[in-house]
Specification:
The protein is 43% helix and 10% strand. By secondary structure, the protein is α/β, with parallel strands linked by helices. The chain starts with 19 loop residues before the first helix and ends in a 10-residue tail after the last helix.
């Protein structure tokens, strides 16, 4: 477990200190020009570094100067990843001291473009690439990872990367980015995290024809062979890294719900696209209810898109409405879905199992504007992966139905948003309560400045992961995400809400993560899932355990 200094974790396999060039090539231990003369003498570094010793602050100054000179966000992303490959401590110092400006670079929206070009940008591998060719020896592959005491694994098969679709092995940029946020936002030591790409092929013809594509140049594995590979992976992780939490990330609907259902009671797993998005989305709804001075149980919600994000938010919203006193059947009837085939209603053909609870008695409707007119929702939530679906007539209709219409355009990256923040405020005469999946700049409408909120999963999954790791919880439960949503909504103040914000500033995200971790630890104990004892002052305990990117003195 992590020690009380907050500056390092007691992790098996991280205590070996290399020397000389090997030390300078170890990103977890390298300090570059910050090594002291005493350390240079003791560790065989004399002559391998320029003579002037520099503080971490001076090193950061150089990084920020070079960062500012990069011509675009993609070049800034590449620059930061190169820094992470050289010196992770300095990388996290830069990120954590500039979270608000850095998060859009290391994750959404820039990571989407980076994934599309991943094979062309490829420099140095990060994480583990487990391919279909490794079947029968996945545990052997896991043993190649140098850090034995892994606590958090983020795994994808690259089939549904953000709103960009099947990017195959290029999707590795997503788990790489997510483990970075576990450290920067949740305080989990970078040596305790592992990004994994399950390369089962790709059905993206453009990638299959790309000579620089880094993955298996074959169509996707499906059916029983796919399931056997995932079974072997889960079992191998449990054997090799028995204390690890596994986060499923950017799997297609056809596998996401099924894998979560299959493994959630057999291993310590969760799906961030379903459960993490649900918690942040619900927190946004809780904050919106504070603005409208109403309760969630009195809202009617219409979702545009019936995949992981929408179903996840709706399912957790149903739980929250029941928590406010609604019967289960009534709570489900407050949530409606519209997808590519129209309104989801009873009797519609080819409904997935996860759609059925939300299929209500109603005549078919094939136009979203007509669905808004008929259902008359208080809230519309876009999770479709298609841009500009919330047109001016739809937003104006929402503003006619509601004094303060709630409009969430959640599709990523920014180019996929169902509407822009400016459109939402302009078409609603400044009355919309807006949130998006990717960040938008503040807008001025009728002399008033609005600061739009981002439904950013980084508000939730790092804190949940930290709580699971510190408690040693055997499973991740829906109650943990419900608790996280309530805590997150309580972190935003009235001044922030008056500016249109539904979440606290990104700069406060580590304190949010600590509060969520405390709630998760308490739930793990109450539910009999915790394996680790913890002291009474949980918040102080959690804060002491959170990783701080300070250099450790070796001599």
């Amino acid at each position: 477990m992590p020690n009380a200094s907050g500056n390092s974790w007691e992790l098996t396999g991280l205590d070996r200190l290399p020397r000389g060039v090997d030390l300078l090539h170890d990103p977890l231990k390298n300090q570059g020009t910050a090594f002291s003369q005493k350390e240079r003498d003791a560790l065989g570094l004399q002559g391998l570094l320029p003579p002037r010793i520099m503080s971490q602050d001076t090193q950061k100054l150089r990084i920020m100067e070079n960062f500012a000179h990069k011509p675009n966000d993609l070049e800034k992303y590449v620059f930061l990843i190169d820094l992470e490959d050289r010196n992770e401590t300095l990388f996290y110092r830069v990120i954590m001291d500039n979270l608000e400006s850095m998060m859009p670079i290391i994750y959404t929206p820039t990571v989407g473009k980076a994934c599309q070009l991943y094979g062309h940008l490829f420099r140095r591998p990060r994480g583990l690439f487990i391919s279909a060719e490794h079947q029968g020896r996945i545990e052997e592959v896991l043993c190649n990872w140098p850090n034995r005491d892994v606590r958090v694994i983020v795994v994808t098969d690259g089939e549904r990367i953000l709103g960009l679709g099947d990017l195959g092995a290029n999707g590795m940029g997503i788990p790489v980015g997510k483990v970075t946020l576990y450290t920067a936002c949740g305080g989990i030591h970078p040596g305790a995290t592992l990004p994994v790409m399950m390369d089962v092929g790709t059905d993206n013809v453009q990638l299959l024809n790309d000579p620089l594509y880094i993955g298996l140049p074959q169509h996707r594995l499906r059916g029983e062979p796919y399931d056997e590979l995932m079974d072997e992976f889960i079992s191998a992780v449990q054997n090799r890294f028995p204390n690890a939490l596994i986060q499923f990330e950017d799997f297609a609907n056809v596998n996401a719900f099924r894998l979560l259902s299959k493994y959630r009671d057999r291993a310590c797993v969760f799906n961030d696209d379903i459960q993490g998005t649900a918690a942040v989305g619900l927190a946004g709804l809780y904050s919106a209810m504070k603005i409208t001075k109403t309760r969630l149980k009195d809202q009617k919600i219409l979702f545009c898109g019936a995949g992981e994000a929408g179903i996840g938010i709706a399912s957790l919203a149903v739980t929250a409405m029941m928590d406010e006193g609604l019967a289960m059947e009534d709570a489900y009837h407050h949530c409606w879905f519209f997808d590519v085939d129209g309104l989801i209603v009873q009797g519609r053909a080819n409904l997935a199992d996860y759609h059925i609870p939300f299929a209500h008695p109603h005549p078919p409707i094939n136009c979203f504007l007509d669905a808004v007119e008929e259902i008359r929702p208080n809230v519309i939530i876009g999770a479709s992966g298609h841009s500009r679906l919330f047109t001016r007539p739809i937003v104006e209709l929402m503003a006619n139905i509601n004094e303060r219409p709630v409009i969430f355009a959640l599709s990523n990256p920014t180019s996929k948003a169902e509407c822009t923040v400016e459109e939402a405020y302009t078409w609603s005469q400044g009355r919309a309560i807006f949130a998006s999946g990717s960040p938008f700049e503040p807008v001025i409408h009728n002399g008033r400045t609005f600061i739009p909120s981002q439904i950013n999963n980084a508000y939730v999954f790092p804190g949940v992961g930290l709580g699971v790791v510190l408690s040693g919880s055997q499973h991740v439960t829906d109650q943990m995400f419900l608790a996280a949503a309530k805590i997150l909504a309580n972190q935003v103040n009235q001044r922030e809400m008056d500016q249109g914000q539904l979440f606290p500033p990104i700069a406060k995200i580590r304190s949010v993560s600590a509060a969520i971790a405390v709630a998760v630890i308490q739930l793990a104990q109450e539910q009999g899932l915790a394996r680790n004892p913890v002291p009474e002052n949980l918040l102080e305990y959690v804060e002491q355990k959170m990783y701080v990117p300070n250099y450790k003195r070796y001599a």
